[in-house]
Amino acid sequence: MIGADRGRWNVLARTGRRVVGPCGQPFRQKAHDMTEATAILDLSAHLPVDTFQLEIRRPGTDKPVGWVIELAGPAHPQTIALNNESTRDAIEKEKAIEFAQVNGRKWKTEDETVADRRRQNVTKVCRRIVGWSPNPTFTIVSPDPIPFTLENAVNLFLRPELGSFFVQVTDYLTSERAFTRPSSQT
Length: 186
Hints:
186 residues, alpha+beta, three-stranded antiparallel sheet, flat
């Protein structure tokens, strides 16, 4: 009955005749429906920032060491390129496995060492680094400051003694609040 009345109300509303509900009271659209239709909800302030300046801390403390690493956010071209490459690689591997299965062949996995896998993982993280400042000096590596390049970043973060710095980068990249705008900007 209610569904039939609702259809009748819509017809009456389009004809311009007074619309009444089942109790004889005038039918009114809910007030919140009208304000929702006219309100504009802009969520732009809640989108992630393009890059983030991560202040590296002394291991085990909250004291900054003066080294700032700029990281690429989810919409940054570096991150998009990395994600696209990873997806293409996964598709190619799936296709190769399926091709082997369809042709009755065994799928052979690639020979990979622990060092190869570790380098691959560190490289993926380092590809999210846009740059750093100032150029850090690690006397165990070089007496000169080390400028940012992908190769330098990977070689630094592969070193076990720099693991606590690498963990800070990965922790930030995987945190729930990564790349959120500061509350002063929202």
